[in-house]
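Can anyone check this?
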Amino acid sequence: MTQLRSSIAPTLQGSHRRWLLALALLGTLGSAAIAAGDELARGPVVITTGNAVIRATPDRAFVTLATESRAKSPKQAQQQNAEAMGSVQQKLKGAGIAPEGIRTLSYDLSLEYDYVGGKQVPRGYVARNTIEVRLDAVDRVGEIIDVAVAAGATSVSGVRFDLKERDQVEREALKEAVADARARADAAASGSGNSVERVLKIEEQRTSFQPPRPIPYMMKTAEAATAAPTTEVAAGEIEVHALVTLTASIK
């Protein structure tokens, strides 16, 4: 009798587990059916997308500058680069750039090699110091580039423009995008012989920021900068985009 009970018990336990799983599945299906019923009870909907683009003149610029120094020893390369970057930053501050407007992006000190007979032969050390300069007057970009290059900057790798009040412009673009989506919803509902009852959901589709591309600026040496005229950089316009999806019930 004891052996019979011990063999039946696992079977009963397995049946109990299957019974519980069946109840859970029925509960899930019931919840899905209720949700679907709620969706149907809500009535027909219209889903539209709205887009807006605001063009604005940039009032802020960022310039990326670098100094590069080479020497036989790492200490010499570091010292020479420190002098070069110190001279650049001193000239920038003398040109009216505030200390908080200068930010270090990267610093690198590494050993360079030449390949001779398929083997690496140490050539010397190179030190690079890259900074970003913020300008709140975009018409001074060319002037600041010339000042930096004349002071010892060996490369200008990027210029980008932006807006001081970007958040405000983005909110205005978002407002216009929602209005566009609502107008499209009204048009779609009207075309089907209905009208929009109320807005149920608005989703913003975030887009990546694409700054305007200025006139390309090639690397210049200090000697070339002395003889060349002032660098001209065109700021153009900034485009701020907003894209939304709107869901509304119709009647």
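Reply from J.R.: I decoded it. Residues 41-58+164-224+237-251 form a domain with the Translation Initiation Factor IF3 fold (CATH 3.30.110.170).
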